[in-house]
Write a sequence for this structure.
């Protein structure tokens, strides 16, 4: 390629690409490094791992405190997924289809749990539950997590809904609802700050148990748990992403007045 | 595909399932279990022990608390700038790649985004610890004689928070830069602009809404960060969220509430700026993608 041609390339230069590659490494490396550690034969975290073993996975699956916390988190995540979808999907339908005064304010209110600092929501709910004697009650945790998970459902459903005719809405939103439900599940399954305050000693979720492990234990069980979570998150995330793409293809195949890009463009309203 | 389409068109529109009333159950739920508790907590900051401004005066008068507020602000600012500097090249490269490649790489940005913050923070504890990978590597290379104190420092807070918040910067930048016409940049280059000139005079001004959105979003989230500073920060790196949690544990609820009100006010001000630039829904939608 002649140098004159290269001058008109107008793409990222080599330096930019190199920086971008380093940032990708920075994003991914820390998550990947936990995986080999979880198979360590050593008692402490050390590099390189002294040998291969599954002892930390065995430890995880044989200890009732870990297993109970995981099962509780799965149960709470499932319940939150159902409740958040049941409340959020109809609300998204109502919001997208109608245009009443104060609509933007309502949207802001519904989605605000995503933006409000979690610590604020957590202590608000904690004071409330403390007065009602609900600290340590798993159902109370489901309710608290649902408030935080609902925005994911509303955003996903309305993203798939915008500018489609009602007649074709149902087939189109189905993947959006599923994607929203999956994100709602993950948001509850990973949630720590509310759980720190509200779970007491009787409703210890997996993130809460992990927090204790990170603070007070130093064995690699936490690396095994982290590996399981990375794999699980990747699986759920890829499913949700495929559903989202399916939603966009469906919309493209059926009517499509607008390219899907319009959702992410900065068009002022 | 076509079967779905005909099926859907045949189905009658008599079911008015999109009625505005469908929003009511959610609103009641959020009002009872989210808005009421948060408002009651805020009220506590001025109503306890009696109607008073005592709790806020305690914040202003206590040099420790004042230091925490200042540190929180400084950390949020530095993290935001670092995210912008690191995120911009990534967003730009992603935006200029063919869609198939950029979608794949975008998954690599989104996967860490969806991985538990606890797992990501733990990963940094593993990397930065005294026996951690970075110290082992530096020792093996002979660059240092003794392990460095990396964990439980402000440095660790920065590194881990930037790692966690970067996707929030990359996503809005990416969506804006993708809309910037590459021909403009080509034209500028053809007219003799240096690469930096193209960046400063074409790309940066056109990407400004994305820069604003990303910065404000990262800044708000950084202000309220709890898990990461609590785990990787040192005893001197007390951020406001950690201080709030400590006050709750000490049963100093009115003071904790007053601190929470300050944090919320800061977040609301930043969000109002964001909403003004982008419109409410766009600003909110940004949080997820």
């Amino acid at each position: 390629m002649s140098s004159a041609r290269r001058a008109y390339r107008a793409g990222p230069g080599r330096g930019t690409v190199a920086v971008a590659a380093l940032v990708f490494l920075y994003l991914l490396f820390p998550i990947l490094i936990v995986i080999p550690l979880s198979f360590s034969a050593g008692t402490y975290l050390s590099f390189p791992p002294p040998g291969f073993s599954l002892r930390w996975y065995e430890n995880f699956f044989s200890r009732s405190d870990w297993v109970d916390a995981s099962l509780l988190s799965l149960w709470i995540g499932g319940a939150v997924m159902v409740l958040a979808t049941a409340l959020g999907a109809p609300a998204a339908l109502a919001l997208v289809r109608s245009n009443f005064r104060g609509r933007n304010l309502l949207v802001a209110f519904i989605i605000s749990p995503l933006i409000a600092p979690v610590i604020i929501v957590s202590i608000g709910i904690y004071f409330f539950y403390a007065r009602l004697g609900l600290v340590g009650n798993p159902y109370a945790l489901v309710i608290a997590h649902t408030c935080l998970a609902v925005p994911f459902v509303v955003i996903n459903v309305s993203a798939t809904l915008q500018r489609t005719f009602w007649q074709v809405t149902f087939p189109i939103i189905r993947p959006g609802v599923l994607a929203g439900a999956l994100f709602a599940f993950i948001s509850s399954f990973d949630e720590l700050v509310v759980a720190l305050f509200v779970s007491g000693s009787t409703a210890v979720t997996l993130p809460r148990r992990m927090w204790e492990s990170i603070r007070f234990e130093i064995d690699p069980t936490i690396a095994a748990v982290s590996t399981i979570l990375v794999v699980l998150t990747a699986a759920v995330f890829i499913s949700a992403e495929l559903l989202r793409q399916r939603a966009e293809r469906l919309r493209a195949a059926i009517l499509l007045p607008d390219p899907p890009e319009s959702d992410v463009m900065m068009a002022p309203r | 595909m076509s079967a779905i389409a005909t099926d859907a068109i045949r189905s009658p529109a008599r079911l008015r399932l999109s009625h505005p009333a469908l929003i009511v159950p959610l609103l009641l739920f959020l009002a009872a279990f989210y808005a009421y508790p948060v408002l009651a907590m805020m009220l506590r900051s001025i109503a306890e022990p009696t109607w008073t401004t005592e709790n806020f005066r305690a914040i202003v008068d206590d040099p420790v608390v004042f230091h925490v507020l200042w540190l929180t602000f400084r950390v949020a600012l530095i993290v935001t700038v670092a995210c912008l500097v690191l995120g911009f090249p990534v967003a730009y490269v992603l935006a200029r790649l063919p869609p198939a490649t950029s979608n794949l790489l975008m998954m690599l940005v989104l996967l860490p985004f969806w991985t538990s913050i606890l797992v990501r923070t733990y990963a940094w504890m593993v990397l930065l610890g005294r026996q951690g990978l970075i110290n082992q590597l530096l020792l093996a290379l002979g660059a240092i004689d003794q392990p460095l104190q990396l964990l439980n420092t402000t440095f660790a807070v920065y590194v881990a928070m930037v790692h966690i918040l970067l996707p929030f910067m990359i996503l809005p930048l990416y969506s804006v830069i993708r809309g910037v016409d590459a021909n403009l940049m080509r034209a500028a280059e053809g007219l003799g602009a240096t690469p930096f000139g193209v960046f400063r005079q074409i790309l940066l001004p056109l990407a400004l809404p994305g820069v604003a959105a990303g910065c404000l979003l990262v800044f708000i989230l950084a202000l309220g960060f709890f898990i990461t500073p609590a785990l990787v920060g040192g005893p001197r790196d007390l951020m406001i969220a950690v201080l709030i949690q400590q006050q709750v544990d000490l049963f100093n609820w009115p003071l904790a509430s007053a601190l929470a009100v300050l944090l919320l006010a800061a977040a609301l001000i930043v969000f109002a700026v964001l909403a003004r630039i982008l419109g409410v829904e766009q600003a909110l939608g940004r949080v997820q993608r």
Notes: The CA atoms of residues 7 and 13 of chain B lie 12 Å apart.
